[in-house]
Design goal:
It is a single chain. The chain has about 325 residues and is of the alpha/beta class. The chain folds into two domains: about 230 residues, P-loop containing nucleotide triphosphate hydrolases (Rossmann fold, 3-Layer(aba) Sandwich); about 110 residues, Helicase, Ruva Protein, domain 3, CATH 1.10.8.80. Helix content is about 50%, strand content about 15%. It contains 14 helices and eleven strands. The strands form four sheets. It has a five-stranded parallel β-sheet. A two-stranded antiparallel sheet has the order 3-4. It has a two-stranded antiparallel ribbon with strand order 6-7. A hairpin with a 5-residue loop joins strand 3 and strand 4. The radius of gyration is 22 Å and the shape is globular. The two termini are about 40 Å apart.
Length: about 325
């Protein structure tokens, strides 16, 4: 009995500490980055759940600065890989090189590539060939890099933030659906409004640039990840998530009109996992020990938008996945009927 009370009070303390540290991290990022509050939350959600993020937005919206700032606030090692058509897998993972030892002999030594860091910015990932893309995606999935039959573990925590430009389609290799599915969330970056733009101009053209101060560490990120996993979720909320994911499939019973008309394939079970984990982070951000329906609804679009494969008609009519997800949310009752 006493042990249960202790466990409960310990978890309550973990929740308070999580919300406090989360607030500190966001505050430091906000010293450098103007606006993008929802984007910062979603990127942090991926980091704190062991997931990876796909960021879509035109160039110049501060994606690199955001990742650098986050790395500084968490004392994590930052790595940036610029994807180009001639980038090779070894340019990402590293390779074996011949090194001379003190005795004059020669041996192979592994020289790690830029993927050996905590926070990786994979810039314009869709500009590289599928073979090179897959080298990064393997690292994301396995958390290791294999070279010449030897497996090298990646540093922890490890999180990839890949960017793609929605405008530039020439010379790009769009990510296949199976690879897109490995990204926990797809985050959309919008252009700043007039007030935000003015704040950016003021902050970036002065004599001193704002910098983030470290307020957490790699060990603390690992602890926060464990706290996320401990958040309970009621069975009726899990059922709601399952009905949302099932509702994205055109042949499911009760599928909405837009889903039947515009979707070829719906979201995978990974979509459901992403919703649950992101909803747990959102609950902890608010200092709550349980996942609410509102948490699920707030994260559904980011977790599902890249997992819907549109039909030819959907592509021809220019339907946005977010429109379809909005219909699924509206049509899915919180209580099973």
């Amino acid at each position: 009995m006493g042990s249960h009370v202790d466990d409960t009070s310990d978890f309550a303390a973990d929740i308070d500490a999580f919300a406090e540290d989360y607030g500190r991290i966001v505050e430091q990022v906000g010293r450098v980055i103007v606006g993008h509050g929802e984007v910062v939350d979603q990127v942090l959600t991926c980091l704190l759940t062991g997931g990876h993020a796909l960021l879509e937005g035109v160039p110049g919206l501060g994606k690199t600065l955001l990742v650098r700032t986050l790395a500084a606030a968490l004392e994590l090692e930052f790595g940036r890989i610029q994807f180009t058509p001639d980038l090779m897998p070894a340019d990402i993972t590293g390779t074996n090189i011949i090194e001379e030892d003190p005795a004059g002999g020669k041996r192979f030594v592994f020289a790690p590539g830029p993927v050996f860091a905590n926070l990786i910015l994979a810039d314009e990932i869709n500009r590289a060939t599928p073979k090179t893309q897959s080298a990064l995606l393997e690292a994301m999935q396995e958390q290791t890099v294999s070279v010449a039959r030897t497996s090298h573990p990646l540093p922890q925590p490890f999180c990839v933030l890949a960017t793609q430009n929605p405008l530039e389609l020439e010379g790009t290799y769009p990510l296949p659906e199976a690879q897109l599915d490995r990204f926990m969330l797809k985050i959309l970056l919008s252009s700043p409004g007039v007030e935000e733009l003015s704040a950016i101009l003021t902050r970036t053209t002065g004599s001193e640039a704002a910098e983030a101060v470290a307020v957490a560490s790699a060990d603390r990120v690992e602890q926060m990840r464990r706290t996320v996993r401990q958040v309970p979720i009621a069975s009726h909320v899990t059922d709601y998530v399952s009905r949302l994911v099932a509702g994205t499939h055109p042949h499911a019973a009760g599928a909405g009109e837009m889903v039947r008309k515009y979707v070829r394939y719906g979201a995978s079970p990974r979509g459901g996992q992403a919703i649950v984990l992101a909803a747990k982070v959102r609950a902890l951000m608010a200092g709550r020990a349980n996942v609410a329906f509102e948490d699920v609804e707030a994260v559904a679009a980011a977790a599902l938008r890249h997992r819907l494969i549109l039909s030819f008609e959907g592509l021809a009519d220019g339907v946005a996945p977010d429109q379809i997800i909005a219909e699924v949310l509206a049509a899915t009752g919180r209580n099973a009927t």
